[in-house]
Amino acid sequence: MTTGLLLALALLALAMGAALFGASLLQRARQEQQHDQVIDQALSRLLHAPKGEASENVRRTPWRLLMDTLESLGRHFEDGRLGKALLAPEDRLLLDQANRNTRSGRAIFLGLRLALALLLPALVALWLRPTGVRALLELFAALAAGVLLPKFALNAWATRLRKRVEDELPLLIDLLRLLQGIGFSMDQSLQTIAERFYTVLPVLGREIRDANAAYIRGRPRDQSLRRLAESFDNEDLKSLVLIILQVHQHGGAVQEPLRQFAERLREQRKMGMKEKTGKLSVKMTIVMMLTLLPALMLVLAGPAVVSLIGTMAKLKGH
């Protein structure tokens, strides 16, 4: 009884501490929001810019307030040991693949993990009210879930983007080969793809547009394309970036290498589809054995079994 009472008091103190901490962060975020609103109002009055009211309305939304609170929480712990532990290199790579590896994106991700790590155990303690060893296990499970759920969601998002990059890569190669064939330079081809084909290449088109913007601001072409080559962990994309850099530096005809490259990619995709088809056939065989075979045996052997039962009944009657 005493142990349960102490555990309840400890959980209550933890919940109160989390509530006070969240309230202080919320108050700080509101103060920063008020300061930003005052500055925006002053600027809008001076410049007569109609966009000031729109930005002010955006800041007043609950979603914006939540993001500001998470960002403030993440920045508070980002430079400490806890922030370094919860922002491992693999987490930064996932953020980079999702195009969120900025100071704000890292802070929001870290703040979300910390907030869920505090919120889920408090909810478990208030809702389930566990006692004894079960309380420790459930609270530890809630803490682990709060820390890991944002990473799982980010990993799923990054996986989906990598799959889209694999699907868009053959079309990107064909567009480059087409534009090179009509006399465009490599820079003109990349600029045209980023400006006119972003609807059919949403992921790679965005990355090429960012690379072009970095190149215009003064970065070398190899540095501007480094994110495109390294972020998605795709060897074919790395090879394409190397071809682009070689053509950019030395020039030369690139239609034939791009055609061979596209054909090799299509052959690889065909082999992958054949492999998936073979595995699917094996899986369907197991499914048919477990579902179709019992029904087939029942249909074929059912009348014979019924007839045999009737015959045996007649023999017993005689």
Descriptive report:
This protein folds into two domains: 2-159, no CATH class; 164-267. The protein is 86% helix and 0% strand. It is built from 13 helices and no strands. The protein has helices spanning 2-47, 51-59, 62-77, 81-86, 89-97, 103-127, 132-181, 186-196, 202-216, 221-224, 226-230, 235-250, 255-317. Helix 1 packs antiparallel against helix 2 (51-59), helix 7 crosses helix 8 (186-196) and helix 7 (132-181) packs across helix 13. It is flat.
Key features?
318 residues, mainly alpha, single chain
Report a brief summary of the structure.
The chain is an all-alpha fold and 318 residues long. The protein has helices at residues 2-47, 51-59, 62-77, 81-86, 89-97, 103-127, 132-181, 186-196, 202-216, 221-224, 226-230, 235-250, 255-317. α3 (62-77) packs across α6.
β-strand number = 0
Count of alpha and pi helical runs = 13
H/E element order: HHHHHHHHHHHHH
Helix percentage range: over 70%
Structure classification: mainly alpha
Could you describe the largest sheet, including whether it forms a barrel?
none
State the end-to-end distance: 74 Å
Please report which band the strand proportion falls in: under 5%, 5-15%, 15-25%, 25-35%, 35-45% or over 45%.
under 5%
Mean pLDDT across every amino acid position: 78
Alpha-carbon Rg, integer: 31 Å
The shape, in one word, is: flat
Poorly predicted regions: 49-59
Number of domains: 2
Secondary structure elements and their pairing?
Blueprint: H1 2-47, H2 51-59, H3 62-77, H4 81-86, H5 89-97, H6 103-127, H7 132-181, H8 186-196, H9 202-216, H10 221-224, H11 226-230, H12 235-250, H13 255-317
Helix pairs in contact: 1-2, 1-3, 1-6, 3-6, 5-7, 6-7, 7-8, 7-13, 8-9
